[in-house]
Amino acid sequence: MDNLTVFTEFLLMDVAGSRELQVLQGVLFLVIYLGALTGNLVTVTLIVMDTRLHSPMYFFISNVALIDLGSISAIVPKAIVNSLTGSKMISLTECAAQIFLFLFFAAVEIAFLVVMSYDCYVAICHPLHYGLTITPSLCSQATAGSWSSGLVYSAMHTVCMFRLPFTRTNVIQQYFCDIPQILRISSSDVQSSEFVLIAVSVCLVSACFAFMFMSYANIFSSVVKIHSGEARNKAISTCTPQLAILLLFLISVTVAVLGPTAKKPSL
Known about the structure:
Layout: E1 9-11, H1 19-49, H2 56-85, E2 89-91, H3 92-125, H4 130-133, H5 136-161, H6 179-184, H7 188-225, H8 229-258
Antiparallel strand pairs: 1-2
Helix pairs in contact: 1-2, 2-3, 3-5, 3-7, 3-8, 5-7
C-alpha cells in the first residue's frame, strides 16, 4: 500500500495534434458555446417576456433551455481553456464537478421530457380536461420533482465514483471527464457498485422512454382520427416543439454513445 500513487489530477486527451489545431479547436468550441448560450438565453427571455407564451408547454421548454445551457457549460468551458492554453490537466475536484453536473442535467432533461410528453398527451387526447389536469400547482410540483430527482441521481453516481482514491493511472482517453473513462481507471469496488447503479438507471430510463413512446403513440392515434384539417394542424403544431426537443436529445445521445473514442492519449 505504501508504494501506491494516489492521483489528484488527470491527464486529458487532445482532440487535435498540433498546437495550431488545438487553438483552432478552442476557437471552434468557443463559437459553438457562445451560439448555444445565446440561443438558450434568447429562448428563455422570449418565453418570460411574451405573455402569449405563458403556458405549461412553454414553461417546460424554458426549463429545458436552461438545462441545455447548464449541460454544455459543465464541459465546454474547460475544454476551451485547455485548448487555448495548451493544458491537458484537470483536477480531481473539477473532474468530479463535471461528472456531477453532466449527470444532473441529463437526468433532469429526461424527467422533463417525460413531463412534456404527458402535457402533450393531455392537450391532444383530453383537451376538455387540460385546464383541470395541467394546473399551475401540478407544473410546479413536476418541475420541483424533476430538478430534485436529477440532484439525487447525480449525487449518488458521483459519490460512488469518487469515494475511493484513483491509483491505477491518471490518463483519461477523452477531452473531458467521461464516465466510462473514469470507471476504466477506478478500483474494482467502485466499478462493481457503479455497475449496479447503472443497471438500475437503465431500467428507470427504459421505463421513462416506454412512457413517452406510449404517450406519443396515443397522440398520433388521436391526430389521425381528427377529420378537420385545421384541428389536425393545430394538434400537430402543439406537439411539434416537444417532439423536436426529444429528437435533438436522442440524436445527441446517439452521437455520444456511438462516437469514436481514441485508443491512445496524445502525450
